[in-house]
């Protein structure tokens, strides 16, 4: 049995204090890689410059009605959600430019949003489809 008492999330938030950092929005297309080595270096550079990655924006396109193409795009988004979690990003915004088959894309994005939630990241979807 643990002797450490757990505290509620609210109690932890009450103890938060502002820091002198600038929240920034990262474009997924600007990321050189999602490899841990690159992300560690990026995180260090952001921190050294007083920047906090608050949002990661991903442009997505689901023009192909092929389920395999949809899955490839979802896998790419899922990889970017993992990168966001690694960097400490709070929100990933998926800007959907085109959707050919809502019935295939919507459940895939919902599953991706659930995965993001489990990783501590909020996934927002904007554009041609909404969750």
Descriptive tags:
single chain, 131 residues, alpha/beta, 4-stranded parallel beta sheet, 4 strands, 44% helix
Shape: globular
Order of helical and strand elements? HEHEHEHE
Distance between the termini: 42 Å
Which ranges are low-confidence, i.e. pLDDT below 50, for 5 or more consecutive residues? none
Would you kindly provide a written description of the structure presented here, covering whatever features stand out?
Helix 2 (36-48) links the parallel strand 1 (22-27) and strand 2. Helix 3 packs parallel to helix 4. Strands 1-2-3-4 form a four-stranded parallel sheet, with helices on one face. Helix content is 44%, strand content 25%. The chain has helices spanning 9-14, 36-48, 67-87, 102-118; strands at residues 22-27, 51-62, 91-99, 122-127. By secondary structure, the protein is of the alpha/beta class. The model has no long low-confidence stretch (mean pLDDT 92). The protein contains four helices and four strands, in the order αβαβαβαβ.
Topology:
Layout (H helix, E strand, L loop, with lengths): L8 H6 L7 E6 L8 H13 L2 E12 L4 H21 L3 E9 L2 H17 L3 E6 L4
Helix pairs in contact: 3-4
Structure described in brief:
By secondary structure, the chain is of the alpha/beta class. It has four helices and four strands; from the N terminus they run αβαβαβαβ.
């Amino acid at each position: 049995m643990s002797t450490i008492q757990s505290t509620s999330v609210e109690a932890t938030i009450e103890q938060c204090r502002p820091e002198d950092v600038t929240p920034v929005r990262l474009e997924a297309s600007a990321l050189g890689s999602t490899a841990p080595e690159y992300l560690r270096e990026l995180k260090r550079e952001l921190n050294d410059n007083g920047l906090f990655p608050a949002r990661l924006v991903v442009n997505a396109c689901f023009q192909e009605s092929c389920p395999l193409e949809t899955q490839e795009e979802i896998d790419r988004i899922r990889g970017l959600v993992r990168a966001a979690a690694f960097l400490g990003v709070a929100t990933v915004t998926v800007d959907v430019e085109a959707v050919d088959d809502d019935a295939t894309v919507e459940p895939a994005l919902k599953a991706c949003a659930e995965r993001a939630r489990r990783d501590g990241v909020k996934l927002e979807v904007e554009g041609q489809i909404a969750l």
